[in-house]
Amino acid sequence: MGLLLVLSAGAGLVAAGSAATQQWELARLREPSGLVLHPGRNTLFVVGDEGDVAEVGLDGKLLRISVLGGDLEGVTCDPSSGLVYVLREGPDEIVEIDPDTFKALRRFRLDRGWAGDREYIKPGGDGLEGLTFVASSEQAEGGSFFAVNQNDPPALLELLLPLRSGRGDAAARIVAAHKLGPAALSAIVWLPGRELFLITSALSGRVALVGRDGSTHGTFRIPGFLPEGLALLPGGIFIIAQDTGGLIQWKPGEDPLPGLLDGKRHGD
Predict the structure, then answer these.
(1) What percent helix, strand, coil does the chain show, rounded to 5?
(2) Interior angle at CA 243, CA 242 and CA 246, nearest 5
(3) Contact yes or no for 66/53 (Cβ under 8 A)
């Protein structure tokens, strides 16, 4: 798809036919790496590699920013509680935060063991990157978290956290794992209308449609350099976090995959 650069007020606009891409600079947000559309607030929560947590309007304006610290790689939310969950690489922990104050409430450290291997997810390397929450009324904790491990191995993980049964800090336990490729996996988005995930590889700049069992149902390319985060808004609009800085709003000229853009609200 050819791209023609046009400038608009405060942002670069790239258009090709009926497709359009708009750049949101967000200079104060360092190395954005993950984002989610918060359904209760109708805003984006964005995290960065340098420890920043930000709330951004759907017009691309920075509303609030704070420093949580660490290498933050993913973010999601529980729609029933409105709480936000931030993924910190290195210790590979999920931090529960209050969306009003950005205050950390609880921490869930990854139990790296799976299928008899005490370190299925290797410490100290390219660890957990993307995070999404799949709500379920049949699940005692209200749902499951799904994460992608960047490397060693590149994998889709289902994680169980004691959101309802626990009160303090606890472990995030792997309850299912499926090896994927290619590395480096960087973002994951749940599509409830399709019962599938969108999983991004930052190095290839491609997104795969993936089932809970790790099966792949097609891929497509997205704009941006080293796209690390992804969210899908109503109307088939993608918001992409690129490691080099800023967010990209992308409206494809046509459906990247048949039946993908159903107009529902989704987020990573």
Answers:
(1) 0, 55, 45
(2) 50
(3) yes
Cα–Cα distance between 123 and 243 in angstroms, integer? Answer: 22
Task: Note the pLDDT of residue 111.
Answer: 97
Tokens of 15: 């258009």
Global pTM value: 0.90
In a domain, 47, yes or no: yes
Q: Across the chain, what does the average pLDDT equal?
A: 88
For 228-247, how does the pLDDT look when each residue is reduced to its tens digit (9 = 90+)? 999 999 889 999 999 889 99
Cβ–Cβ < 8 Å for 88, 50: no
What is the C-alpha R_g of the chain? 17
Place of tokens 């704009």: 223
The number of residues making up the chain comes to 268
CATH number for the domain that contains residue 227: 2.130.10.10
The verdict on residue 1 lying in a domain is no
Kindly state whether residue 53 falls inside one of the protein's structural domains.
yes
Task: With respect to residue 17, please indicate whether it lies within any of the assigned structural domains.
Answer: no
Question: The domain containing residue 216 runs over which residues?
Answer: 27-251
